[in-house]
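Sharing in case it's useful to others searching the archive later.

Someone asked me privately for the predicted structure of TIGR04452 family lipoprotein, so I'm posting the question and my answer publicly. Question first, with the sequence:
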Amino acid sequence: MLKKLLFVALAFSLTNCLVLNPVGATLDREKGSEAASRITDAAIQTDLVRSVIISGSLNISILSLVAADVAKIESDKYYVKSDVDQCINDIQGFKGVALGSLVANIISCQDLKTDGYLTGDPFPSF
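And my answer, the predicted structure tokens:
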């Protein structure tokens, strides 16, 4: 009985990744379309804050509207949520305000890895 229970638990934990990762149901995963939207919103907000500080008027860079494309986010893939959160924090933080959202995006968001089915890309982070 104990062997069967352990086997079922092991089988469930292995299939859990196969089923939950592709549908984005794991805790630390985020769909690319949502990540792209959050990165674009962060870039727009940072450009607005930066333009008010520098010139006193509201301006948005055209490059902030394509921030997700600059970060090379694929909308059909899944990304590690903590990596996306770090990218957004860098864009909205001191880097973004001091250097601009485009430079902060290039510095912080270029290395976002897609999440694979079982192992991640290239391996899962623990």
